[in-house]
Amino acid sequence: MVSHGDATHGKGSSTHHLSRGDASQLRSAAGHDGSEPMQQGQSNPMPSDPAQSGPVQPDSGQHDAATSADGACPLFADLAQQFPVDQPASDMIQILSPDGVRTDRDDLPVHVSDAQLVDAYEKLVMARRFDIEGTNLQRHGELGLWPPLIGQEATQVGAWLALGSADQVFPTYREQALATWMGVELSQVLATWRGTAHCPWDTVATHFSAYPVMIGSGTLHAVGYAMGIQRDKAADPSVDAAVLDFHGDGAMSEGDTNEAYVFAAAMKAPVVFCAVNNQWAISEPTSVQAPTSLYRRGLGFGIPSVQVDGNDVLAVAAVLSAALDHARSGRGPVMVETWTYRTGAHTTTDDPTRYRTAQTDEYWAGLDPIVRMQKYLRSRELIDDAWLAELDERAEQFGAQVRDAVHQPDPDPVALLDDVYADPTPDVRADQRELAEWLQGGQ
Ligand SMILES: Cc1ncc(C[n+]2csc(CCOP(=O)(O)OP(=O)(O)O)c2C)c(N)n1
Ligand SMILES: [Mg+2]
């Protein structure tokens, strides 16, 4: 958890972005037309006072006021050209460049000490190791399914650094690493994917809620929980908590998610939506679900919304930390889109080579969250070869722990109905008795 006392102070105000070359490489990989995105400072095309400013001229300078070159009414700008969904936004927040160069911002303090930076690197490595072991265990038939998190590690580590001790996480099914740092046992995560348990961890003690499998459904639970926090705070002003809700880019197309955003905005609920844009909803790219950058949708609900480089631990930590502070202080919800990439398959049932190009994979390999963090920490001399060699050993030991944790006794089938209600009804008890008798009779 972040200690708010050990802030690293801002060193400058410039924002480091992906170079134009990187962005156009991505665009060409995605098969787009090469038009330029909007420049910094143009992120909100609506003037604050339309009466004073006259009609909106989002692409002013290119066409006269009455018609555009193609005859389109200038009121209806082609937002897809200005804010293309398949490129990082021109105002995407980044602190650590892919080369490991750090550029702090005056408006965004990074509350991460040097010791936490080193720990964050270790967590990145362990998250990837957990993922590799999970994938292998599924291939060995020990797990029914595994949803890889590889490539998305920095978003989970950044979230871990930002969370306060009373905050509640509503995850997707991909936040495996964050789950374990919050106190969920390795064996509990693995049992879920082995199919031998339904959310076996204590969601109150760990502050880590159950995985939703219905896409988007968790957003409603998260907002409901946040509204509960509001009520707790009304009764006891010392309550200092918010909700961090994860959902994917694909989940943004679900009605549940949109309803959750409406409620969060209308109720000023203390919730931060972390929209993990890993570019894909199984085999559907974001471009078939939205024409413009996803974070801009949050603005339409009246929710302050930003895009952050999801492969940059420092930027994710700083933005989520500020967003959670905002939510905890009663100022309402925030949406944070983390721009990242699912390097692996959607799940172990998926073959991404059927729908993605090697060129896109290579582009994203150049933005790897672990590589950039290692470069940065080496440049600061916070880690060296000897430390990295020790970390390799710790990762080996951790891998063995994961493989051990998968071996658990099969659960009692009668326990299947234990958690249907907090207090089992007579019907549930009768079903359990019947099941127990049937099982005995079958032996
Ligand atoms: C309501 C619903 N519709 C469809 C599915 C099938 N499904 C499982 S994962 C998934 C894609 C979700 O994509 P995204 O929200 O981007 O999350 P990601 O898997 O990329 O982390 C879909 C469509 C589902 N589980 N629930
Ligand atoms: Mg996705």
TrEMBL record:
Instruction: Cite the entry's keywords alphabetically.
Output: Oxidoreductase, Pyruvate, Thiamine pyrophosphate
Q: Where is the composition biased (Polar residues)?
A: 37-55
Recorded hits in SUPFAM superfamilies, A to Z, give:
Thiamin diphosphate-binding fold (THDP-binding)
The record's CDD domains line, in alphabetical order, gives: TPP_E1_PDC_ADC_BCADC
Which cofactors is this protein said to need?
Answer: thiamine diphosphate
A Pfam family it matches: E1_dh
GO-annotated molecular function: branched-chain 2-oxo acid dehydrogenase activity; magnesium ion binding
Which top class of enzyme applies to this chain?
Answer: oxidoreductase
Q: Which reaction does it catalyse?
A: N(6)-[(R)-lipoyl]-L-lysyl-[protein] + 3-methyl-2-oxobutanoate + H(+) = N(6)-[(R)-S(8)-2-methylpropanoyldihydrolipoyl]-L-lysyl-[protein] + CO2
Domain Dehydrogenase E1 component residues, every copy: 125-410
Kindly give the InterPro entries that the UniProt entry links to this protein. Answer: Alpha-ketoacid_DH_E1_comp, DH_E1, THDP-binding
> What's the Enzyme Commission number for this chain?
1.2.4.4
Q: Where is this region: Disordered?
A: 1-69
What is one process in the GO biological process aspect for this record? Answer: branched-chain amino acid catabolic process
Question: Can the keyword Cell cycle be found in this entry's annotation?
Answer: no
> Gene3D superfamilies in the record, alphabetically?
3.40.50.970
Q: Which family does it belong to?
A: Belongs to the BCKDHA family.
- State the function annotated in the UniProt record: The branched-chain alpha-keto dehydrogenase complex catalyzes the overall conversion of alpha-keto acids to acyl-CoA and CO(2). It contains multiple copies of three enzymatic components: branched-chain alpha-keto acid decarboxylase (E1), lipoamide acyltransferase (E2) and lipoamide dehydrogenase (E3).
User: What is this protein's name?
Assistant: 2-oxoisovalerate dehydrogenase subunit alpha
